[in-house]
Structure formats: C-alpha cells, structure tokens
Amino acid sequence: xxxxxxxxxxxxxxKVLKRLHYPLEVxxxxxxxxxxxxxxxxxxxxxMQERGVVVDHATVHRWAVKMLPVLAKIFRSRKRSxxxxxxxxxxxxxxxxxxxYLYRAVDREGQTIDFLLTAKRDLAAARRFFxxxxxxxxxxxxxxxxxxxxxxxxxLSIIADxxxxxxxxxxxxxxxxxxxDHRAIKRITGPMMGFKNFHCAQAIIAGIETMxxxxxxxxxxxxKGQPLSKTEQFYSLAF
Length: 239
Hints:
Layout: H1 3-18, H2 24-36, H3 41-50, H4 57-76, E1 85-95, E2 98-107, E3 112-118, H5 123-137, E4 142-145, H6 149-162, E5 167-170, H7 176-189, H8 198-215, H9 230-236
Parallel strand pairs: 1-4, 4-5
Antiparallel strand pairs: 1-2, 2-3
C-alpha cells in the first residue's frame, strides 16, 4: 500500500476517534478484549466497572463497529505475504436470525489469506472473494476447494480471464486446514449470539480476523526495534 493511501486510512481513524469521547487506551482495551476473547459486550461492561471505568455495553459496541474496519485496513497495509498454495472454504455466520456466509482461505502453513462476509453463497460471492484475495496477494499457483459448484465456476472464470495457470483441486481432506481454522473465528463469535445487522457483522468480523492474524504472526513490525507482543501489535495499529 502506498504512503498516500496509508495517510488516508490514518486520517480516517483520527476522524473516527475524534467523535468518540473516551481515552484511546480505554477504547482500544475494550475493543481488543471483544475480538480476542469469547466475551459479550455486557461482559466487557462488567469487567471495566470492576476496574473503576463506567462504560455502557452499547457504547463498547459503537466503538467496535466504528474502529475495527479502519484498524483492519491499517493491518492489511502491514500484512506479511502468504504462500501460493491456497485452501478456501466458507462457513456460516448468523445475522439477524439468518445464516450468511463467511468466505475464508489459508495457505499451506495455515496463514490467513483473506476473508469476506457475503449475504449469498453463489458464483458472484465466490468471485468477489477471489478478486479481493488476489488483489492483496497476487495470483496463487493452486487453490484447493470442496466440491462447491459456485467456487469451481469462480476459479474457472478467473483462469479464463487472466490466463493464469492455476491448479484447482477438489479435496475435503486437503481442506481440513481451513475448516479447522474456522474454529478460531467461531470461538469468538459464539457468545455474540448472532449479529443485529450485516454492517455490524462485517465490522466486527474484520476485527476478529485481524486479531487472529496477529496471533498467527502475520503482521510486519512497524519498526526494527524490540519485538512487540501480540497485544502491543494490535495497539500499534492505532498509536
């Protein structure tokens, strides 16, 4: 990502933070807890009260929805490169009582390639996911999927459009890695009991995925100084 785009994202974060009238340290702590651990907003409200900080659970929710998408964009500018052998699959996320689809992919080392929450599970959604992933990481050498017709059609259309020599494999056994990786996301979303609307779901899942990638060591340090802990890496997205 070029310096101009990085500057725009940082300016966006500054504008978001300017409207939120709490110390940045408090907001980042609450938001990090929410995306790092299986806690509800009410849990965080109670924990903060025990620390002498009065904050309503609805306020924490507002912070998460406003801050997490911007922090996720900053992370993408610092994300390490991934391998060229991809495993792609989709899992289910409940939004307003209905199941939606979270497309995800990892490389052979288990590093997250990309993610995308969609309302439908079809060719257009699968194609959008692959275009987003390729835009970040370039074309892969191989993609392993299940026997989904939509995913197959999306890959074939990308091969036809780009002329790339991408090996497509349909193997549930080889896709176990990405299916296991779904569990880390579901472990956090479980206590949330579903999302109120699609926009909130997109924002919060972006934060959960970002924290998950930080835990997997996928963030390039901002400087060559002493290595930062996972917690410090998350905070460095805003500070």
